[in-house]
Specification:
The structure holds two protein chains of two kinds.
Chain A: E1 18-20, E2 27-36, E3 40-47, E4 50-57, H1 60-75, E5 85-93, E6 96-104, E7 109-110, H2 111-116, H3 121-139, E8 142-143, E9 152-155, E10 160-163, E11 170-171, H4 197-212, H5 224-233, H6 242-249, H7 256-268, H8 287-303, H9 309-325
Antiparallel strand pairs in A: 1-2, 2-3, 3-4, 4-6, 5-6, 7-9, 8-11, 9-10
Chain B: E1 5-13, H1 23-32, E2 36-43, H2 53-62, E3 67-71, H3 75-103, H4 114-130, E4 132-140, H5 149-164, E5 170-177, E6 185-191, H6 212-231
Helix pairs in contact in B: 1-2, 1-6, 3-4, 3-5
């Protein structure tokens, strides 16, 4: 967005640049650009204690606002999946003052990339802890807002889900700050954009839909629940989760805990996922997933006949879920 | 002036003005009068040249608002984002002036340590959530806009969803330019329900000229008249807007 009249500053850093905070005096050496949004950029940098992520924006106000949100939300008891807040400062550059904040660098794979290579139960296994985090967040009066795969990262060893962007976080009762159409109930004609737990839970449902429709889909007139339900039924891949997705879309969950419990019941029923290895029927006509399929095959062969695999796997799954539920 | 009302003109156009006063001059005047002018340029699919881009930015800059140039299909998210950001910007401007009053003439928010800024941010967000918003939507209906109008309508309905999710009140009105006999035609008088614009664009006659400057001037007058009314003055002279819209 062009906003020539307001804080329009060069807010780019370059690899190798040393950013020195004006107020707190910390040094950060920029490694590379991690990501870029509508109004800001995130860089990987080296701080005194190791790698960190630095967010800059051309609007110093949105930096302050996000830093403040991140600080408050990650302090909430039970919210554990966000990056920890480390520092906020200004740097003086040739073009003026640029505000930035520093947070924990979370290394991992994008949510959908990770899931594409995995059996469908992994979708639920990752969404369960997300719902637990959302529950605590909601209890404390915050809404995630811009919930989407791009804002979720899956770390390796141990495999766990983390969220990374606070740009959409909004106090309950206010108008949602940032959203993405596919995940926004307003776009689908399914409600307003007032921050409420059900707003996030609708987005969680669409997050699961996104696993079935990797390139998403557009609203067709008149849109609404009919189109969404048709799309849900059109993807056998999503069948195991259909009841939860539907209930979330219709916003019939009182809170995130109820949605989590439903999901957990689905996952632990045992029957649901046994003979539907997602790897074998990836989303049709996607060349990417076909590639992944080829790569995934040898893995399966290795495991074949080692054990009564499915029983063992579902036992492991069960134990892992117990661990997740804590 | 009614306490805590943010007043905006939202101009949607796809090209350069080619008739009447300089829109940049009018936007400057509008800013003086406490309005902010936001401009969204709509590009044709496949047209990277973005006609009138410079003017679009310049109008917004002069009018203390924001601008963006997008394809018609991206309009919804852009319109609501520009409107929201511009509103925050206006409030931020007011708060910043307060800071100057308190801290001295050269001080700005960035002269405060980061920890202290957060309280101010919270104030700005609180006001942004609760302030009243008067927004006059001014749509270019010159011939080249014809196939973009369905997207414009969609984007405005979407804007209403966003704004109506705020706690504060919203009032909208909708004008098109060029008008049949006047610089602008009123499609919708001040109303809290923007939804009533459905179908408003159907009756529009398309024209070849783009008198952006004169249209902005009329839009400014509509705002000023409303401000006067809210102040409690009787307003007898400004009858130029009184003929029924279409």
């Amino acid at each position: 967005m062009r906003d020539p009249s307001w804080n329009n500053r060069d807010y780019s850093f370059y690899p190798g640049q040393v950013v020195k905070g004006k107020w707190h005096g910390n040094h950060y050496r920029i490694v590379r650009l991690l990501g870029e949004g509508a109004i800001g950029k995130v860089y990987l940098a080296e701080g005194r204690g190791g790698l960190v992520a630095i967010k800059v924006s051309r609007e110093s106000m949105s930096v302050s606002s996000e830093a403040s949100t991140l600080r408050q939300v990650t302090k909430v008891h039970g919210v554990t999946l966000g990056p920890s807040f480390l520092d906020m400062d200004d740097v003086i550059t040739k073009t003026g003052v640029t505000s930035f904040y520093v947070m924990e660098y979370i290394k991992g794979e994008p949510f959908l990339n990770f899931l594409r290579e995995k059996n469908m139960e992994w979708l639920g296994i990752l969404v369960v802890p997300l719902l637990k985090d959302l529950y605590s967040m909601h209890q404390a009066g915050w809404i995630f807002g811009d919930l989407k795969p791009e804002n979720l990262i899956v770390t390796a060893q141990p495999i766990s889900l983390r969220w990374i962007d606070v740009g959409g976080m909004t106090k309950v009762g206010r108008a949602v700050k940032e959203y993405t159409e596919f995940f926004d109930r307003g776009y689908w004609g399914m409600g307003d954009r007032k921050a409420a737990p059900a707003y996030d839970l609708f987005a969680v449902s669409m997050l699961m839909m996104n696993r079935g429709y990797l390139s998403r889909f557009k609203r067709e007139e008149p849109g609404g629940i009919k189109q969404l339900m048709r799309r849900l039924r059109d993807r056998p891949l999503l069948d195991p989760y259909a009841p939860v997705i539907e209930k979330g879309m219709q916003q019939r969950y009182k809170d995130a805990l109820m949605m989590k419990n439903d999901l957990l019941n689905l996952l632990t029923k045992g029957e649901t996922f046994r003979h539907a290895p997602a790897v074998k029927k990836p989303v049709k006509s996607s060349p990417v997933s076909r590639q992944k399929k080829k790569r995934a095959l040898p893995k399966e062969r290795i495991f074949k006949g080692v054990l009564p695999t499915s029983a063992f796997a579902s036992f492991l799954l069960f134990v892992y879920i117990l661990y997740l539920v804590g | 002036m009614k306490q805590g009302t943010v007043r905006q003109i939202l101009l949607l156009t796809d090209g350069c003005s080619n008739s009447g006063e300089d829109p940049i001059a009018i936007a400057t005047l509008a800013k003086e009068e406490g309005l902010s002018v936001n401009v969204i340029g709509i590009m044709d699919e496949g047209d990277e040249s973005a006609r009138g881009l410079g003017e679009i930015e310049a109008i917004a800059q002069a009018g203390g608002g924001m601008s963006d140039v997008v394809y018609a299909k991206q309009l919804s998210q852009t319109v609501q984002m520009v409107t929201r950001k511009a509103m925050t910007q206006t409030i931020f401007g007011v708060v910043n002036r307060e800071i100057k009053n308190i801290l001295g003439s050269n001080k700005e928010m960035e002269d405060l340590p980061p920890e202290k800024r957060e309280d101010l941010i919270e104030v700005v967000e609180e006001i942004g959530e609760n302030a009243s918003l008067d927004i006059l939507v001014l749509v270019d209906t010159s011939a080249s806009m014809k196939n973009k109008l369905p997207r414009v309508q969609e984007a405005l309905l979407d804007l209403a969803i966003s704004l109506n999710s705020r706690t504060g009140e919203n009032d909208y009105c909708l004008y098109s330019f060029p008008g049949k006999r006047n610089p602008v035609d009123r499609l919708l008088a001040w109303t809290p329900q923007l939804d009533s614009l459905k179908g408003a664009f159907k009756k529009i006659t398309m024209s070849g000229v783009t008198p952006t400057g004169p249209a902005l001037k009329e839009a400014m007058k509509v705002h000023l008249k409303r401000m006067k009314k809210e102040e409690g003055y009787e307003d007898d002279e400004g009858s130029f807007m009184e003929q029924p819209g279409l």
